[in-house]
Structure formats: structure tokens, C-alpha cells
Structure prediction request, 279 residues.
Amino acid sequence: MDKELQEIIKKLLAEKKVDWAIGYEKAYDELSTRPAFVQDANDTARLIFNKYCINNLGLYLTKFKKNKLAVVCKGCDIATVFELIKEKQFSRENVVVIGVACEGVLDKKTGKQLEKCENCRVKQPKGADFTVGTGKDSAAPKNFLDVVEFEKKSSKEKAEFWNRQFEKCIRCYACRNVCPVCYCPDCFANRTMPEYLNKNVDAEENKLFHMIRMQHVFGRCTDCKACDTACPVNIPLTLLTKKLAKDAKELFNYESGADMDVLPPLSTYNEADSESDIL
Prediction:
């Protein structure tokens, strides 16, 4: 797979069809990879793909939007690319999507497959310009069992749970920084005029940050789990992102990145939209 991937990108760069290619390369040991940025066609030999390629490389597309790019995407990551195109962060013509078949990636810390991979339905990439490898998709519907179970808790139990989690937050903003759809150049968390958040790192201010951020990415989050993986204090942000995905599907029949012709629910108005949450 590596050789085929390298040859595709080498040809794209050599023929000047793209300015940069974004893929993966070996990091500091055999169990680690990191994003690789390649501009020279003779420098593609370091590109690899394996079960440790966790990063969602769609993150970097908005940072190189003035260039023609090739980006390596797992099937799940392609949703991010399509969502950003719908939000007009770059044009489809300026991005060459190289899909790689993926049977799931591993968490180096635990050696186990990431939770998102256990119910993956897109092991074989769809919508890519080039596809490397073959995978067998799952026909199973998206699993929200953990969210459904959490929703059974009382309001008091939910509040106590999240208060405990947000007390751990150190407001390092790693979750925001790795989120592909958190591309605002002027984040509300950094504003001082007006000031949305004070500098105190406490449960209430932390809760405000996370809840506002989740509101901003509702219907846009592709549930890539990058925030969950990046959190240094292991806050289960997956529970929030899956809740977003579940609500978007149930309330608006919308799945982020799934249909290029349908806008995110908060980007449009439809008289048939549910108003069940409006008091």
C-alpha cells in the first residue's frame, strides 16, 4: 500500500497538479506516526499508511487553502473534507483526495482499536479521486448506545458527571486546536472585547467553553474523535460529539459530510424542521 500511495503522490507533485501533499510518516518509534507535508516529488518515500495513522488530516486543509493540495484520507476522514467544501473553505477543484482503505486504527496508549473504528461503516473510502487498498464496509447503523444509556440518567446525575469532568479540564485548548471544523481565526475563547471567558480555569468557566464550542460545531462535527484523542486529562468528549451526531440525525435527518448537496442544519432554514426543543 505504501508504494502505491507514494507513486500517486509523486506523480501529482511532478506534474504540478498539486502544490503540497499531506500524508503520514513514521514518528519517533514503530508505534507512532505524524502528519507529513511534502512539496518535492522526490521526497515521497517517507510517506506511509498503517494502523497507527490516527490523525484526521482534514485539519490542515483550511491552513493551506490558497494552495492546490493532495490529502490522504481514511474513509471516515473524507466526511471532514466534504463538510469543509460545503462550508466554502476551499473549492473541490483544489483538493485531490487520496482515500486509503482502513480496517481501523489503534490507540498507542492502550494498544486497542479506537472506539470509533469498532462501528465504522466506511472502511472502503467513498468519493476519493484515488483509492489505495480495499476494505470491507459494515452495513451496521451508526451506534449511539453509549449516548442512549447516558440519556437515561437524571438531570442531576448528568450535571454531576459533567461537573466532575470539567473540573479536570486545564483549558489547554487541544480539543479546539485539533478540530477540523474549528477554523475561526478569531476564537470566542480568546476574545477580550467582549470577554466571553475569564482567565480562571474552573469547572464553570470550563463548562462554558466546552458547551459553546459544541454549539458551534453542531451539525458540522463529523465525529472524528480528534478532540477526544488529544485531551491530556481524558475528558470523554466523544460522548458529546456522538450526542451532537445523534441529535443532528434525529432532529434534522442530517449526517455531517454524507451528502454534498445538503447544507448543515444551522446553515439553512426549513419550515419542516423540528421545533421540539424550543420552549
Observations:
- Residues 25 and 46 are 6 Å apart (CA to CA).
- The beta strands are 20-26, 33-38, 47-48, 69-74, 95-100, 130-132.
